[in-house]
Amino acid sequence: MSQAKKCVVCGKPITWRFWICEKHRKEYGDNLRDWPEWLQFLVKDTRREQYSDERQQRLLDMIDDLDPKHLISVDPQDEDRF
Fold first, then answer.
1. How far is CA 75 from each of CA 51, 66, 80, rounded to the nearest angstrom?
2. Residues 6 or more apart from 13 whose CB is under 8 A from it?
3. What pLDDT band is residue 1 in, cutting at 50, 70 and 90?
4. In the chain, what's the furthest Cα-to-Cα distance?
5. Which pLDDT band holds residue 12 (cuts at 50, 70, 90)?
6. What is the mean pLDDT of residues 54-81?
7. For the CA atoms of the chain, what is the radius of gyration?
């Protein structure tokens, strides 16, 4: 599930604490609010994508944990109603 983080500008592998590599941190600084709008968008979009992927994985894990004995069964005669 865990993927190696990459700089959102150049794709270079980075540590988990940052969104951009050292080269781009020197160029743009450490504060996201001071970065150009296009870079802020890339970071926020990447963050949304990661959170969405994590949420989806948690939901899939929850489904896997369901006990089939407790699932609702449908009477075959009523299948056409659903």
1. 38, 21, 10
2. 4, 5, 6, 7
3. very low
4. 68
5. very high
6. 75
7. 21
pLDDT tens-digit series, residues 36-52: 999 999 999 998 998 99
- 0.70 exceeded by pTM: no
Where residue 62 falls among pLDDT bands split at 50, 70, 90? Answer: confident
Which residue is listed with tokens 């970065």? Answer: 35
Q: Note whether 36 and 24 are within 8 A (CB).
A: no
C-alpha separations of 59 from 4, 54, 56, 65, 66 in Å: 22, 9, 5, 10, 11
Bridge partners of 13?
6
DSSP codes joined into one string, 6-70: B-TTT--B--TT-SS-HHHHHHH-S-GGGS-HHHHHHHHHHHHHHHHHHHHHHHHHHHHHS-GGG
**Position 20: which residue type?**
I
